[in-house]
Structures are given as structure tokens and as C-alpha cells.
User: What shape does this take?
Amino acid sequence: MPKAIAKGKKGAKKATSKYYIDCRLPIEDNVIVLKDFESYLTQNIKVDHKKGNLGGSITVAMDKESLVVESKIPFSKRYLKWLTKKYLKKQELKEFLRVIATSKSTYQLKYFNIQNEEAAE
Assistant: This one.
């Protein structure tokens, strides 16, 4: 007979995850207002298939030149990138900025390298 499988551990910690979006370059050039970006993420992150249903499980906070998204529930870094791209599209900045992963928990907004196109013309 097979042994009984334990269904869950008592006292197990919930894994919290922190993700950072570094917006230093666009903020220095006054292209993005960090407060607007923060409110966009707060309104559009879905929890249980509902927008703006963050409760206490996910927090979005500003830090000097970046945003910090802290989650107490499972949260995808890729979803954060998708929302950032959607924000850039809404602000008509998608042609100029791109979202690049610089570390395991950090994205950075960088400009496209446009000098090559100008030299070709």
C-alpha cells in the first residue's frame, strides 16, 4: 500500500516577491510621470480576474526613480512587463522606449538606439 501523502505544511511561509521597474532615463528627460505610471499599474493589475482588486496582497510604491511592486500572492514578472508595454503604448511612447530585464527581479526602461537609422539616411 502506498503511503499517505501530506496535503500541506502548517506554518509554511508565503513567499513574497518584489519586482522593480527602473524608470530613471525617461524621468530625467521628463517623458514619463512616475505618479501616473504608479496609478496605471494600481488600476490595471488583475487579482482574481478583477482590475483594481489589489487588497493587501499586492502593493505598488514609488521609490525615487523606480516603481516597486510587492506581492504576497503568486505574481508573474512577465505580466508586469506586459502591463508596462501597455502603458507605453497608451502614452504613445512604445516607438521610443523598450522594457529590458536587467536582473532577476528588475526591469529597466531604455531608449531604442536611433542613431543607426539617422546615419543610414
The chain has four helices and seven strands.
